[in-house]
Amino acid sequence: MVVLLRVFNKYCPVSCTDSDVTPLNFVQIFCSVEFGIIALVLFHYLILTFKFNKSKRMPDINQELERPIFSPSQLKDLGYKDKSYLSTILENQADMLRYLQEKNETLTQKLYQQNQKSLPNIN
Q1: Which sign, positive or negative, has the C-alpha torsion 85, 89, 94, 99?
Q2: How many CB atoms lie within 10 A of CB 23?
Q3: Is 57 left (phi over 0), alpha (psi -120 to 50) or beta?
Q4: Which of 23, 48, 98, 111 pairs as cysteine with 8 (C-beta 3.0–4.6 A)?
Q5: Residues 6 or more apart in contact with residue 91 via CB below 8 angstroms
Q6: Crossing angle, helix 2-11 and helix 23-55, to 10 degrees?
Q7: What is the Cα–Cα distance from 84 to 100, expressed in whole angstroms?
Q8: What integer pLDDT is reported at residue 107 of this predicted model?
Q9: What is the mean pLDDT of each run of 10 residues along the chain (123 residues)?
Q10: Do 30 and 7 contact (CB within 8 A), yes or no?
């Protein structure tokens, strides 16, 4: 845009054609053509976006809302976990706690032994 203004000011200071088109009119024509091209490209992109969105599946939340309502017999199975699953998790956690406590005791003993070796005898 700046280059266009410089060229018009250098070669056509007052009028460039016989129909008295000024440099300002040329800039206005240039901006109008540029806006028209950009508007056409954006409109084409909008059409492509609509076509793309129509071809894709709906989001999961929309699919869940369109499902028929479940009967009570089907609802009890949703998210159901038996008691053995919970007891298995609790047993694993208990085993992990026991292991970590034993590891903590052995590390504490090693640290105590290292401290005893590094400290000089006070006797």
Answers
A1: positive
A2: 19
A3: beta
A4: 23
A5: none
A6: 160
A7: 24
A8: 94
A9: 73 68 78 96 95 77 58 54 75 91 94 85 58
A10: no
What is the number of other CB atoms lying within 10 angstroms of the CB of residue 4? 13
Write down the pLDDT at residue 2.
72
Radius of gyration of the chain, Cα coordinates, nearest whole angstrom: 40
Residue written as token pair 């609509």? 50
d(CA 116, CA 109): 11
Please tell me the predicted confidence (pLDDT) of residue 62: 61
pLDDT of residue 38: 98
Tell me if the pTM is above 0.70.
no
Q: Which of 79, 98, 95 is nearest to 87 (CA)?
A: 95
State the amino acid at position 82 in one-letter form: D
Q: How far apart are CA 29 and CA 101, in angstroms?
A: 82
